[in-house]
Amino acid sequence: MSKILVFSMFLFAVTFTRASGNEDLANKDSLALPSAEARMQMVSKLKEIIDRIDGDGLLPRANRPETWESTIQRLIDEAANASTAYDLGRVFKRMDATYPNLHAKVFLVPQLDEKETAGSVRLPFKFYAEKIDRQNNNHRYFLVALNQNKKFVQTGDELLEINSIPIQKWSDENFIFCKFPYRQQCEVEFFDNFRNELLGWNRHQPVDLKIKRGSQVISVSASPEIRTNKQNPEDETAGLPCGVKSSRYKGFLLAYEGQHLCAFESSSQPQTVVLRIDSFRYEDVPFAVLDGEVQIFWNNYWRKKSPTVKTLILDVIGNYGGQSPMPYYGLFYTQPHQEQYVQFKKITEFEQHEILESLFWGDKCVFRLRRPAVSVRFRPAIGA
């Protein structure tokens, strides 16, 4: 997915800056809220941009419990009632989550994103639908206890309510604030959407559950844990090469260690290499970029090793993404290559050079415009 609509977030940032009187968003620890009227206008303006740029993406919302216009009015009201910058940020997160994006994507500055600045929410349980089907015939939802929280809930407890709201109503809201077109797809995301504060709950509210255990109906309360974005010092993999114990690969030992890329070899299987890639994200790593990581790996290890390798195992378990992995393809392909074909609606933003420059995370790409035709270039294979 391309990182296209920086434009909408730029508009949002400029509007917020002017309204709050802050000249430099990036250097402020907190942001003063603009007036309620200004906040409502911000939602309305972004809605206009989405209608124009991403109107086709709204078509799958036809099966939602409420219309796009009704959802926008709900979000306008939430923006008017926001009491903190984080409250306002959640409004835009919910707006972004309420339809399958095609050309638009909201990126929040950290001062509006509590998950980014304070950490993510962790709950002592998960829940899931007993049956997922297209009809969604009043599913029953069951709990799974996590870690040492089996005294709090027991796996197999049926979830009836959260904060005195029937679970089916939460499910209905989840279907509104879900990117997937079908309800059964949204049901799979239900717990994650709740935990990620995309529904009518956030970390500052209680988590009071009504559950059914056998023939008993009981009430329990939970306290969300906030996990910072920095590595948990209690994490048993913290500080280990690429975040894994070498015992994951029985008989293999570390042969190369980079920032997010490690290679493991086995003396008993000399023609096999395990490549562990724990992240494609380099924004928080000083002086490191994905292209540089791959080039150094080629120069210092893969150039010499690759001719002897017959079996290559790629381990991306727990890799939550980041930049486009195009540089990695250059390690394995000797011919011109591309990641995927993708079509975009012709919008006026594509006429702005700075927006085109930001597409696809700076990778070299092929653009074929209907009129006029343009020349193209492919990224060469590394070592070619």
Protein architecture, described:
With 384 residues, the protein is an alpha+beta fold. The chain folds into three domains: 6-116, no CATH class; 120-227, Pdz3 Domain (Roll); 241-323, no CATH class. It is 30% helix and 16% strand. It is built from eleven helices and twelve strands. It has helices spanning 6-20, 36-54, 68-81, 85-97, 114-118, 167-176, 183-188, 190-195, 290-305, 326-332, 353-358, and strands spanning 120-122, 125-129, 141-145, 158-162, 165-166, 207-213, 216-222, 225-227, 253-257, 261-266, 269-277, 311-315. The strands form three sheets. Strands 2, 3, 4, 5, 6 and 7 form a six-stranded antiparallel sheet that branches. A four-stranded mixed sheet has the order 9-10-11-12, with helices on one face. The protein has a two-stranded antiparallel ribbon with strand order 1-8. Helix 1 packs antiparallel against helix 2 (36-54), helix 2 (36-54) packs antiparallel against helix 3 and helix 3 runs antiparallel to helix 4. The chain is globular. The model is unreliable at 1-28, 231-235 and 371-384 (pLDDT under 50).
